[in-house]
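Note on ligand handling. Small-molecule inputs were canonicalized before submission; formal charges were left as drawn, and no protonation-state enumeration was performed. Where a ligand contained multiple stereocentres, the stereochemistry in the source SMILES was retained. For glutathione, this procedure yielded the string shown in the input block below.
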Amino acid sequence: MLKLYGGARSRASIVQWYLEELSIPYEFVLLDMQAGDHLQPEYLKINPMGKVPAIEDGGFKLWESGAILIYLAQTYGNLSDSVTELATVTQWVLFANATLGPGIFVESSRDREVQRLLKPLNDRFSHQPFLLGNDFSVADVAVGSMLAYVQIMLKLDLSAYPAVVEYINRLSQRPAFQKTIGSRSH
Ligand SMILES: N[C@@H](CCC(=O)N[C@@H](CS)C(=O)NCC(=O)O)C(=O)O
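Structure output:
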């Protein structure tokens, strides 16, 4: 069975959300990060960087949440073999992890980046329910989880971006979200 390694409150919830969306059986290996389980030699064999999440699928080990999401989409989801489709999904996953997350969570860049990044997202969600159009995809897991964390953890006022708020609400209603990321807010 696929193993997902994570901490109680960690980015492993993003991967767990997608595993639940795909109805893939998995075992969540809960590391006690306070106790430093993620820095022990046994876990460093899975991710030498000592970070979560990581997965083991058969003999295959993979870390970095974005890479894991794309692997799952290709292996178990409906991501096609199209180079352009893969590139577009990769664009959104990297945007979430390398641009949106750092831009908003790093306090020194927050004021500048919130306006710059949320305005085009708001424009997009004014015309379509999900990032790629009418259908939910792995791109929504990556970007949507980051936006949900902005609401849950930073409690920013997003009322200037109503379509983004509606998008987060739309994602929050998904059972797989509620079982994973959503349970953080309670
Ligand atoms: N870019 C990485 C970030 C991984 C990361 O920083 N994970 C945190 C938990 S959310 C971690 O393992 N921190 C432990 C540490 O730095 O000691 C990803 O998305 O997987």
